[in-house]
Amino acid sequence: MIEHQQLRLQNWRLKILQEAQGTRRVAATCRRYGISRKTFYKWRNRYQQQGLSSLRDRPYGPHHCPRATEPAIVEKILYLRQHYHMGPWRIGLYLQRYHEIVIGDSTIYRILKRHGLGRLPHNQAYKPHHQKWRCYEKPLPGHRLQIDAKFLQAIPGKRRSYWQYTAIDDCTRLRVLKIYERNNQHNACDFVDYVLSRLPFRVQAIQTDNGPEFGIQFHWHLQDLHIAHIYIKPRTPRLNGKVERSHRIDEEEFYRLLEGVVIEDVGGFNHKLQEWENFYNYDRPHGALAGQSPYERLRQKAQLGG
Q1: Beta-strand pair 228-231/162-169
Q2: Lowest CB count within 10 Å: 47, 130, 214, 303, which one?
Q3: How many alpha carbons fall within 13 Å on the CB side of residue 74?
Q4: Coil, strand or helix: which one is 223?
Q5: Is residue 181 a contact partner of residue 278, using CB atoms and an 8 Å limit?
Q6: Sheet of 145-152: strands edge to edge?
Q7: In 175-244, which ranges are E strands?
């Protein structure tokens, strides 16, 4: 549509120049078409020097902008938005942490909007405050862990599916992950033992949903470890919101990048998952922690407690 309008404008200006040239009456031609003689001579000089295409409108922006964001930075901003669906605030955190680039949120937003990425997908869109659930946080590490099991689709070319067991600390958002081939109480008990061996603090309570993998055998296993077991209300996954939200992060920032990667067995799967767990705990800035990573929040809590 814009190209069509420019073509019509070009032909109209060419018609004016040809008419004035034929009659040699520039003033009369300008009065007829409602333009000034200064504009007429500007068009004629451009046409004589640069040809027909010069009669089209030119952009009004400056030819050089010394304060414009460098193309390499713009490329990083667009990459983080397209691959990880980050907002301006989180993009700014990543650029400052990993590239030592300080750039304002408003500048990042303008770059995203200019490239047609100003709006997130529907499931990532911002929700007004009255639509959000009230956020809570336990005061000490280990006060409560949320544990859940996530079903993973079968790997392309293989019939076998897997289950990801996830434990997240309510206070620090520190996570422990492990893949199993079956979803049952035996593996749930094994995962609890694995979590306790990995965490640097004592666990007082574990919260789960009412899934069969967290049945009576799992419950008594926690009692033997002197850990309280708390069930959430049926059909209320929002009460396990931290672990549910972390699963969405896994989908967006980990499993999406595994597309096309061949994984032969559960051991290889857990190796990849361990790399992601380390990045999440040590390096990934967390929005709910004001840009800190979970281990940075853990160190902060340890210093305050000391």
Answers
A1: unpaired
A2: 130
A3: 11
A4: helix
A5: no
A6: 175-180, 162-169, 145-152, 205-208, 228-231
A7: 175-180, 205-208, 228-231
